[in-house]
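Task: sequence in, structure out. Protein: Dolichyl-phosphate-mannose--protein mannosyltransferase.
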Amino acid sequence: MTLRNNDRGALLLLLAASALMLLLGLGSRELWGAETRWANIALQMMQSGDYFDPYLKGDPYYDKPLLSYWLITATAWLTGSLDHWSLRLSSVVSAWLSVWLVYLLGEQLFRKGTGLIAGWMLATTFYFVFWARVATADILTVCGVLAAVWWYWRGPDDTRFSRYLVFCVLLSLTSLFKGLIGFILPGLVLLPHLLSEGRWKRHLNLRLLGALVIAGAFYMTPFLLSHLYGAPNYGESGLGLVLRENVVRFFQPFDNIGPIYTYLLYLPIYTLPWAPCWIIALWVAAKNWKHIEPDTRWLIQGLGLLMLFFTASGSRRSYYVLPLVPFAQLLGAWWITRRMAARNAESPFGGRGLKIGFAVTTVLLLGILGVLYPWTNSGGGAIRFGETVRLQASQRAPLSQWHFVMVEVDNKVPMYLQTGGEPFYYVPETRDFPRDGDAAAMFEWLERTSGKHWDPKRTIFVAQYRTGEPVPLSRLGQDHQVITTTPTRGEQVFHGREDQSVAYLPQGS
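Result:
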């Protein structure tokens, strides 16, 4: 697709605004929700040098394929540290590429200007930008699905081996982020187009089979490396978890069980503020079904199959609906450009009202996610706590010389990022460690259970607890410096902090 100068300028503005919304204040918000798992696993990989066996709090945890963790560790290697910024950067880049891919799809399949409008709609969708700034595999999956669909539409009737190979490798790559939905979701989206006019018949050939075999080998490579080079006593199978997470959970869910109407409720919410556009588009398309463009019918049918698939799964959570969001916004953009064409609007961007709408939502997102969230997280909290612990420790000895003992209390264990030392030693609350925190008893217990010597002058104990509850290991405060979490600005203004952290540094070291 060749862009004229004004089209190129409009695209660059979209991509620049998207980058600003995604990056502003990215490293200033504390870890949230599932981010702690990705941070914990990536940290233990970097500390131990074992990149094939994911551990969570010291225990085997092969919940997701390895690629999303590898992206984080690679980013940390490039930036020089594992921090909030490097944790989230792979999700941000994926979201930015997703905006670009939606633009390309819209411009390729529909009227001129549809892709630009769809790109702005996606880039200014609150929950899309919110999850794009979270260190999980969900936005990576969205990007992979869009990349596979875009590649298919570059030549839907092309049967060359190279075309098949790139498409199938994209499916494998996407599946290595979160699971086999990387194969399933693009297939469902494209199925209506493949079935129309018997198109699937021309793609049923040995070249496709060969590409699938190569892509299958590509998909299996991380699992094979994990088997060959991982710890022999690891105790969990990556492929076993694939079966459990993608097949067993679909038919016999064991967690995340939501009502059957979950996605009917959350798709409109997750496409705000532009949800009315795709809802109206559905109504308009239904009224004019026989007369609308074939590509529009494909888009609606593909979106419908995605909705049916997620609804059929017994395991349902609100953010599972994220892969539907770009296609819903594409549909909304189709209706807008159709309406503009009927009114003989000249601007390919969408008219003055739409420009104002995109400008306002951009400013709001920048203000909320880029300024307000970082401000409410500043002045204290886990980020400042971690900085204080590292600063106090480094003033006495290089961080690489310190040993960290992370003690779990009430199923909570704090997560602090890279120190340069050896792997953190995790103490689950199920263990029989001295609960009162007597220093001599703690070190005697550590040496007895871990089988190694612990230097009392180079060991830091860290624990997390709820506000108002007794401080864990409090007797360590008799001969250790005590560092606790201070409230962030947001907590000072709105409410107290629910989770507190405490660190005990040896005095006089």
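The chain has two domains: 32-373, 381-506.
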